[in-house]
Amino acid sequence: MQFAACTNRFEGAGNVDVEFDLFGGETQTRLWAIRGNGRRLVSISKLPDDAKGDAVGAMFSDATRAYLISALPQLTDRLNFRFFCKSSFPWFQVIEGILPDTQGHFTDYADEKVTWETLLDEIDNQFGVSSTTLNVLIQELDMRSKTPPPAKGAVPCFTIHASKGMEFGHVYLIGMVEDQLPSWGAVKKGPQSQEIQEERRNCFVAITRTEETLTMTYSQRMFGWSKIPSRFLKEMGFVV
After folding, report:
1. Does 6 share its domain with 67?
2. Which residue, of 79, 118, 120, 172, has the greatest Cβ tally within 10 A?
3. Cβ pair 147, 115 in contact under 8 A
4. At 71, which helix (H) or strand (E)?
5. Largest interatomic CA distance in the chain
6. Is residue 19, in this structure, part of any structural domain at all?
7. Contact, 169 vs 211, CB < 8 A?
8. What range defines the domain where residue 182 resides?
9. Are residues 74 and 142 located together in one domain of the fold?
């Protein structure tokens, strides 16, 4: 467990020091925890070669030192994970601003931050802030979708199974052809098979998601293959 590992490493650390060294042409940041008369290497993170400048190094070092000194005691001594998480975002923003993102680590940072904040709000609203322990938070984050919230006005796309229990004003069923709905596997089982019956029920689920309008489409070719309309369209009287 990452939290337990972090606690074991930093609990009781008397001091924290961050330094820069050059090894084999790479700049590395060494994070040391000083305990008593000893000095132990806790973790190492690599920086890209073009981030070796003294000014960048100093900014990174100062930001990291300030972050660790303020946030880690809250986590290791008081189990205040909220303070630790909240303090992480300003540090992320500093790193994003001073280090070239040559490997795309921050490409989705803005969306992921919004997702994190949304999930945290949902969990707090469900359990209450005082009742949301670290264990509850970890379990809920593990079970919930991490997909970023859609943009305003976006058109949601669902599989039939994912749409169960939902309703929409306007529904579009795309690709109503044989070998798609019903699936190729169901078609091979025969028209009286349980698989075809299950596909028919799936079609019923799809069309009953509709509140106002339903649009169903089919095409003569799909993925380069000739297709015929779904038998379910014939059963509903939409095609001959």
Report:
1. yes
2. 120
3. yes
4. helix 54-78
5. 87
6. yes
7. yes
8. 168-235
9. no
Q: Classify burial at 5, counting beta carbons within 10 Å of its beta carbon; exposed 0-12, middle 13-18, buried 19 or more.
A: exposed
Of 194, 190, 159, 153, nearest in space to 173 by CA: 159
Residue linked to tokens 């650390």: 13
Q: In the numeric block, which tokens belong to residue 169?
A: 């004003």
CB 45 within 8 A of CB 30: no
Beta-bridge mates of residue 179: 183
DSSP E strands in the chain: the ranges are: 15-23, 26-35, 38-47, 168-173, 210-216, 221-222, 225-226
Condensed to tens digits (0 to 9), the pLDDT of residues 201-234 reads 999 999 999 999 999 999 999 888 899 999 999 9
3-state secondary structure 133-179: CHHHHHHHHHHCCCCCCCCCCCCCCCCCCCCCCCCEEEEEECCCECE
Identify whether residues 14 and 90 lie together within a single domain: yes
